[in-house]
Design brief:
30% helix; 8 helices; alpha+beta; globular; 7-stranded antiparallel β-sheet
Length: 321
Amino acid sequence: MSPKGDTNKRYEIHGDSLTTLRTAFTEIVMPEHRHSEAAAIISEVLTANAVQEFHWYKTPGTAELACYWDQAPQNLLWITATEVHIPSDETKVKRPTRSINWDKQNGAYVGWLLPGAERGAGGGKRAREITTVLCPETFIGQPSGSVCPDCDVVHQAEAVTPSTAETIDHELLQQLATQTKNRLSDLFECDVPHQTGIYALWHGEKLLYVGISVKDPADTTNPQAAGVAGRLNTYRKSPITSNFTLAVALRYILPTLTTAELAAFGTGELESRDLETRTKAWVHENVEFSVVAAKPADARLAERLAFASGLPGSGRPMLNR
C-alpha cells in the first residue's frame, strides 16, 4: 500500500500538528476537562514512535478523529470523546510507557480511557449515532448513505446484529481453516466464486495471509472485477507491487540470495523484475489457497477477527503485518 501522504486534506476538518488537533476535540463532543489528558497521551505515542510528520482528520458524520504519520499507509491512532486507541500490534505502533486500560475487538486495538470516562459513556452531550461503513478501496470508515470522498461511491450499511455477527465471523473462519486447499497456480482449474468473500493463502500448514473482496462484480461496470477470484489471480501473478508478493520476497527469497546476488541488486545488474520472477516461482511452487463466499459485511467482520485472533488451529497470518 502507498503512504497516505496528504489524504487528510480531502476532509473539511483536518490538520498536520498536535496543536491543530486539540482544536478539533470539540468537533467530537469531547468534554473540556479531558482535552489536556488526551493531548498528553497522543504526544507520548508520537514521541515513542519518533514521528516526524503528523496528520489527522475527521470523517464527516462521525465522532472520531483519525491520525497517521510519516510513511504509514493506514491510520494508526484514533480519538473519541472517551478514549485514545492504537493497534495492539507493536510492529505498527510502539506503545509509550503509560499503562493500557482499554481494548476492543478481542484485543486488536488497545488504548487509554480519558478522565471520568467509562466504556460506552460519552461524558458530554450525546452525539447523534451515525452508522459508518468501511470503504472497500481505502478501508476508512465513511457515513452510511453518503458519498465517499475517496471513491465517490455511496456506501450502504448492511444490517448485522452483534450477536449474529459474532456467530457469522467465527463460522466463516472455521470454514476457511477447514476448506480443501488448492494450489494457487491451479487457480483457473478450480471452482472459485466470482463474488464477495474471504480467502486465505497457505504454505503447507502455515497461514500466510488473509484477505477479502467486498465489491460485488454485479454492482460495478469494471470489466475486470471478479470478486475473490480476481483477488487470488493477482496473487497468482505475483506483481512485486503487491503487499503479499513483497512480504514473500522478504521472508522467503532474500534470505536465500548469495552475497554476489545481493551485490548485483546494488549495482543494478539484477533488478526488481528479477526478484519478482523468483518470488512468482516460489509462490507457484508453494502457495495454496482456501476461500469462502460471504456477504461484504460478514467478510469484513471475519477478517478483523482473523487479524486479531487468527484461524482455528493456525494462529494469526504471518504476512498481514
